[in-house]
Amino acid sequence: SSGINAEYGERKYGRPINEADCKSEGGNWVKFHSYLEVLTDITTQSACRKAGRSAGKNRVIWDKLRSDDTEKVCIVQAPTMQCEEAPWTRVNHLGNAYGYDKNYKNPNASRIELDLPYFPSGEAKRCVMRLRYNISTTDYDGWNTFAESNDNDDVIENDPEVDVFGDGKGFELALNTAQTGRTFEDRSHAFEVLPRTSAMEGKTIYNLNVRGKRGNIVQTFPATEYDFVPDSLAVTTDDLVHVQWTGSNTHDNNNDGDDGEGEGGTDRSNLMQMSAISESYPATIKEADFWEGVQSLTDSDASGKDIAIGLASAGYYCSESGTDNCPEKESLEGRRNKIDDKMNNAPASYFGHVLKFTKAGSMNYLCTRNNNFSNRSQKGSIWVKAGNKLEVKTRSEETETSVA
Fold first, then answer.
1. Minimal CA–CA distance to 226: which of 106, 367, 59?
2. 104: which DSSP letter?
């Protein structure tokens, strides 16, 4: 026997979910740990316990990976699964949701905020995020209906007719039974988690980046136009913020249209301080006073002005005149060719900076290329509170920051 049920394409073995049924099938019941990584350089229980005390949110244990292993190792366990109610939108609406974030009152697209895994080994790790969604129905008992009922019209029928008048002629319902109990894989994305520097250890790092793609609201559907994520962020001076984004130079939007600024098929973003969130003009680099209280943990030689220049130019200018991590020839003073007014010669993706705040303050900001009055808004706000206790504000409660 091949061990495969030919009718349903399912294997005949390995289906029991408890030890007794497994053994009755002649199998071996093996327990194993779900884990992030194994600290292979640690070889004793005492050293593993010491590593666990400095591992932050992770639980570190000295145990066998599998119950049938012979040796114990130092295991960094996977974090507790995050399970929560999804945001609510009205039916057939792929737009703003209620309850996406308990801290903010402003409506926004459905989302979930996740903590990226932390790897105590300090090694860079390649990770994959898979986004999936389920469709279910109450037209039959979903908890007690299985594959054996496929194509069984007594359970549910494809495009059934209902004899509403009792005369043998009825209305056909648009009911596709292939959709009534199904899991879809929407998107999978690969990314890399880089090791923290010593200055970042023990800190909360918020990821501030850009979502969406080129096009107008119709052309990008069911995705969105460009926007900052999160577009309202409250942090303390004890927190860090990594400002970064990715983009493309080669997409064609599936031939659905390519409205936007600059060269077609290209993504560009930048981040510049502005006064009121309701306005359309950025502050100049000279006027942008928020950066006086900001340091970079990824370019320690960079001044606040250097950081502002890098974010304003998407890294085309990496500083004013050069730093330890920025060659002079790529700086504002050293570049022979200046940045294009639509940023066409700027990079599509930008590693940015991990920012540390030295004082309280607030800033509204925008992207000069994509913010298009009456068509799309790519703006955001950040509030920094002194200390380590957060007082959350919403954009509706504070909409202006001072510009010298």
1. 367
2. -
Q: How many residues does the chain have?
A: 404
Cβ atoms of 352 and 307 within 8 Å: the answer is no
Q: What's the Cα-to-Cα distance from 83 to each of 97, 113, 223, 282, 348, rounded to whole Å? A: 18, 12, 24, 40, 35
- Is residue 244 within 8 A of residue 354, CB to CB? The reply is no
SS percent in the chain: helix, strand, coil, step 5: 10, 25, 60
Give the three-state DSSP class for 95: coil
**Residue 203 · residue 186 · CB < 8 Å:** no
Tokens 């990824």 belong to which residue? 298
**CB-CB contact of 288 with 308 (8 Å):** yes
CA-CA distance, 193 to 242, in Å (whole number)? 12
CA distance 356 to 295: 5
The DSSP secondary-structure symbol of 148 reads G
Q: Per residue in 13-67, pLDDT tens?
A: 677 888 998 888 888 899 999 999 999 999 999 999 998 887 667 899 999 999 9
